[in-house]
Task: inverse folding
């Protein structure tokens, strides 16, 4: 058993080191891609961000509605119904907005990136690029990585805004909370540090989700089963990393 634990630990260190070198390679090629292949980055922002707007907005609306219901139910016990807006704003800006957006991003855009790159690996398209003296890292990987990194904070912001609208609809229109008090409590309670924390989280989650999707797709076994396994690993590992990083960033911010 000790031997097995040791082997798994060594394998983890090897994988982590390879992933770190892969990340540094992406960063090294990022300036060249931004200058020479900006259109590819814009196209990937559309694929990863714009095409994810529907699921982000729908989920944000109903998450905000649930926060409005739960906040009103709990705060009514202390005669603090007017603080429903503050409860929803804190939850969306600092936690639920970045975290749920990252999980939805991994389930929609991350799996698409991993399967697309994995299929290119399985059909030898990446090898063909190398034979034609085209760097697949610059042509395929970096634009998709940057597209996810840029899209994630924007999607998290949209999620939070739509969530606040959902909380307003439920709290003000359905439960009768005063609209002025709803927004006044938010203005008095939320400061720049809370907003910055949400932005930092969404950016970090975007880097992690995009990096893992590109990594898993690029290193997928060139078979149908290998591509499917890479797609599954993308969602699972991203979800675990997002929750761990969320705890770490929150602990540092307190």
Result:
């Amino acid at each position: 058993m000790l031997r097995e634990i040791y082997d798994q630990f060594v394998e983890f260190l090897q994988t982590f080191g390879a992933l770190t070198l892969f990340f540094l390679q992406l960063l090294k090629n990022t300036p060249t891609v931004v200058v020479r292949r900006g259109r590819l980055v814009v196209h990937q922002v559309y694929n990863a961000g714009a095409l994810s707007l529907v699921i982000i907005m729908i989920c944000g609306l109903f998450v905000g509605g649930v926060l409005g219901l739960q906040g009103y139910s709990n705060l009514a016990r202390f005669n603090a119904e007017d603080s429903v807006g503050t409860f929803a704003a804190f939850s969306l800006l600092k936690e639920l907005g970045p975290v749920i957006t990252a999980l939805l991003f991994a389930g929609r855009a991350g799996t698409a990136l991993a399967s697309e790159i994995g299929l290119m690996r399985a059909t030898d398209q990446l090898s063909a690029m190398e034979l034609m003296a085209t760097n697949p890292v610059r042509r395929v990987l970096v634009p998709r990585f940057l597209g996810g990194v840029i899209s994630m904070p924007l999607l998290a912001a949209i999620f939070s805004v739509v969530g606040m609208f959902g909380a307003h609809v439920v709290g003000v229109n359905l439960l009768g909370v005063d609209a002025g008090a709803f927004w006044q409590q938010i203005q008095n309670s939320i400061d720049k540090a809370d907003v910055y924390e949400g932005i930092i989280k969404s950016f970090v989650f975007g880097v992690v989700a995009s990096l893992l999707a590109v990594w898993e797709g690029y290193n997928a076994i060139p078979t149908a089963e290998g591509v499917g396994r890479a797609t599954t690993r993308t969602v699972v590992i991203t979800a675990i990393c997002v929750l761990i990083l969320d705890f770490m960033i929150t602990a540092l911010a307190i």
In short: The CA atoms of residues 90 and 190 lie 7 Å apart. The chain has one domain: 41-253. The chain has nine helices and no strands. The two ends are 39 Å apart (CA to CA).
